[in-house]
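=== RUN LOG ===
request id: a7f3
mode: sequence -> structure
chains: 1
length: 437
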Amino acid sequence: MIGIVGGGIAGLAAARRLQAAGREVTVFEASEEVGGLAATYETGGDRLEKFYHHLSGSEETIVELIEELGLGDDLTWPIGKNAYYIDGTIHPMDKPWEILSFPYWSLYDTFRLGMLVLDVDVRGGIPTFDSYEDLREYEDVPVKEFCIEHTTRNVYETFFEPLLEAKFGERAEDVSAAWLLGRIKFRGERDLLKGEPLGYLRGGFGRLLDALLRDVGSDTVETNTRVTDLSFGEAGVETLTAESGDGTTETHEVESVVVAAMPNVLEGLTGYECDIEFQGTVCSVISMSESLTDTYWLNVADDAPFGALIEHTNFIDESHYGGEHLLYVPKYVQSPEDPVWAMDDDEVADTWIEGIEALFPDFDRESVNWVRTARNPRTAPIYERGYLDMVVPYDLADDGAPGVYYAGMASEAQYPERSLNGGIVAGYEVADRITER
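=== RESULT ===
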């Protein structure tokens, strides 16, 4: 039997791949339900993810899985409208003429940013194409230094800096230029006349988890069960010990173990130390009786307790949610000492609503139906310089844990941005290594 630690999308994808190769698997999930960061809320209609999700055009593996599970007809690609809030004004940032009309940039600023996005290095006056293909060349380059050199200081200060601070807080200047370049490549191609199509599964990505669970079989998944120990013999891992919620402990003989969880879980089981630092997220969904803006993703440069407002029902129509207008309000947290992390749910809701009122004086808090808040201390890595040298290998045999494989968020599949697609890729990578041994 192959034991899989973690019932998120990576663990379920690994289980499915291994079963297809004829292997017996058991998935151990510490919480009461599978899904991890893709867990959902109930609404007046379809379920909604607790933490916002969408697909980019470059994410092919998850699209293939959705089709294999019979959900392909329900995968839609609406335009996710983007805008930028600065000095009290919303500036759409999708179409070329919208970007050209951004009042904080000169024509030269816009040109330099455009060349970066198109993978053209124009430093020195002689364009070089496909200049940023090898991300490792930029792993040790500070993102601030890179942005100023490859665009302009003004573009950095009016655009990149606020976005980096919203995502990484006090760690923003530690981030690698390779992450930024990888993030640009991660996005799909834009429709010049409309904007960027983003993928979403009708009924929510919870349906994908449901389909995966049905496919691997609910009898192969033990929820509310925490793996507490692994034992090793001369040939590698031999047993896995798991404790259920009622305190019952069972030991299972295993031929391999997949850890599809955070690296702290891997360290507790094998002693492998991962140097990647993670940040947490406080993410609320606000249900409103009327829309706040006409934008899906609004980055906020002005002083606010959040860095973005993501109005899901400007992406997927509110009719899917019983007419409720649903707004994500997230904040990345780099330290448990962050004041928002220490707030209770009511305090978080008041903080978000007061912040929205400050940005939108016409906003009526009486339009708020409910606020639900999710928290997780490890939702995303801090992609600092040298990050790729710190990723956890898929196969831990050379690191003192033969027979143990890693498919969690610290794997290379979750670079340059963590995603559902990256989780599936990681699950497949470890499954293939096990079956090819």
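=== NOTES ===
The two ends are 15 Å apart (CA to CA).
The chain is about 30% helix and 25% strand.
=== END ===
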